[in-house]
Amino acid sequence: KKKNDDFLKELDKDRKQKSCEYAVLVSMLESDNDLYNNGIVDKSHHYEKMYVIRPQFFIPMITLLRNAALNSMQYRTELAQMRAQNIDVTNFEDDLVKAIFVLAIPSFVI
């Protein structure tokens, strides 16, 4: 008799080949297993970012993944903006030091 765990290795291989961030096994196997019957089961202790769910949890799972992706995009955008601002400040400081140096040179009397 097949178990959910029998399919995880192949699912992980497919996830990596297709460059997917997450893998979700939607399964009715092991119908007497309360762990699978009660919600989303995290299998990332065996395979990175992998979950097993029953069909009735498919829409909630997709919603969670979608929201996580949107939040991740927002954080990445904010991080890129912060990095750009940091570069602007660094360039400003460098330019300021150069300008002060250029202005200071004529005032030296040898």
Structure report:
The chain has helices spanning 8-17, 34-37, 58-104; strands spanning 23-26, 41-42, 50-53. With 110 residues, the chain is mainly α. It is built from three helices and three strands, in the order αβαββα. It has a three-stranded mixed beta sheet.
Which characteristics define this entry?
single chain; 110 residues; mainly alpha; 3 strands; rod-shaped
Summarize the structure.
With 110 residues, this protein is mainly alpha-helical.
Q: Give me the secondary-structure category.
A: mainly alpha
Q: Which percent range describes the beta-strand content?
A: 5-15%
Strand order of the largest sheet: 1-3-2
Largest sheet: 3 strands, mixed
Order of helices and strands: HEHEEH
Question: Spans with pLDDT under 50 lasting ≥5 residues?
Answer: none
**What would the average pLDDT be, to the nearest integer?**
86
Number of contiguous helices: 3
Helix content: 55-70%
Shape annotation: rod-shaped
Radius of gyration, Cα only, in angstroms?
27 Å
Instruction: Tell how many strands the DSSP assignment holds.
Output: 3
Distance between the termini: 94 Å
